[in-house]
Write a structure and sequence with these properties.
The complex is a heterodimer of chains A (about 230) and B (about 280). Helix content of chain A is about 80%, strand content about 0%. Chain A is mainly alpha-helical and about 230 residues long. Chain B contains twelve helices and ten strands. In chain B, strands 1, 2, 3, 4, 5, 6, 7, 8, 9 and 10 form a ten-stranded mixed sheet that branches. Chain B is globular and about 65 Å long. The chains are: A mainly alpha (about 230), B alpha/beta (about 280). The interface between A and B is large, with 33 and 38 residues.
Amino acid sequence: MLESIINGLLEALKIIVTFNPEVYWVLFLSLFVSGTAVLLSSLIGIPVGTYLGLRPVPGFHFLMKLIYTFMGLPPVLAGLVVYLLLSRAGPLGFMQILLTPAAMIIAQTILVLPIIVGLTVVGVRSKEEALHSQIISLGATERQAAWIILKESRPQIITAIVTGFGRAIAEVGAVIMVGGNISGYTRVLTTAIVLETRRENFEMAIALGIILMALSFIINFGLYKWQQEAVEK
Amino acid sequence: MHLNKVSVKFLVLLLITSFIINLTGCFRFGQERLIIATTTSTYDSGLLDYILPFFMEKYDINADVVAVGTGQALAMGKRGDVDVLLVHSPEAEKEFMDQGNGALRKEIMYNHFVLLGSSEDEARVRDAGGAAEAFGKIAENQSFFISREDNSGTYLKELDIWEKAGINPTGEWYVENGSGMAETLRMAHEKMAYTLSDRSTFVTLKNNLDIEILLEKDEELKNIYSVIMVNPDKFPGTNHEGAENLIDFLSSPKGKDLVKNYGVEQYGQPLFFPID
């Protein structure tokens, strides 16, 4: 057990320094797929979440319960639904993007979007409650108030992005189903770990796991710094 | 404010990298694509990684392998999501063909399923005359047996043998794990249980396993792999030319040689045998 982990660590270092092109491709694809999914989710989710946080629509509480539920959507279920939609025999089959990275991005976006919306709503709403009357009493218009609240909510929104990215980069159920874990094309770090485990290359599997964690650390390093700046301002 | 610029730069860099990868990888230009859905044994054992580079070079084509169970591979074929299948469940394949999902089916290679268990062999299946008799002994003795329960070719074969033995396996001793072959072998190893496996998966993984072959080479345990071309009349978008080329290649003397030679160096024995 300990030996496997130590050997895995050594293997990970070897892969990194020898610039194993296959692993680097897997790494880049992981970043690309999850990064794009988070970007798309943020572009949709932050405006939607901000709107809901500032102006609760009728049925707001029910909607929030629904969003919270979808934050726990099983990746493999999301994968199956996207598979059936994109399948040649399915309604979106004409697009012919099943078993490509594009399909993986769609599946992960479905997983990440509820997280970004849900956490943005919570963040914006708490600032709205704390600051709204104060800002208005200082003579700001509603529009200006909304903008200030959004800016004040930045740390919470960054938390939403961090959480969403964590979900995307770590999941395997959706990408393996819609991407197919094709070598050099749709294989990402998590699906590579599944394959290496199946092949009983435990050391390689652990090495990939360590690389995945290191990658997450670097990304979160940047995001955390960004968040700290937002807090300090 | 200065630090803020750094973070913006960081994001912009991330975006640019994304787009470059997008252009180079997401939409592969030029080369033709052939999608093969296969049972895990041919892929996890390394056979396809060994053979396909020769095929890709000869036909200047990208062969993309999706390794799933035979049941799932057939399901993908039924929906027209892949071009060609490499599977090992003749009965399920015949049904697939009868429903008009395949245009061409060719038996390409074989090996044998093996009945595995701990060396103690408490049900004494080593002495059995055949697979059905061995299964009977396991049931009678209520020894742990791990079943995959996943519509894979191996699982369908297992059901077939229970039926021939006239047994409906139920009880605490019959463990249905719903997992792949590698996970199942590991579970059999941990629980010192019996299980049925394709030969290639066991041979490639056996170094880490404390279970051994108790029964093999029984005619009942023959394991036939076929290639099936998904019906292009039913699914006009599929790459039937590539599928035909793959079938031709695997049937050619060169293809047969590759099948026969794979594993000799690494495992001291071939894992698959071509069918003439």
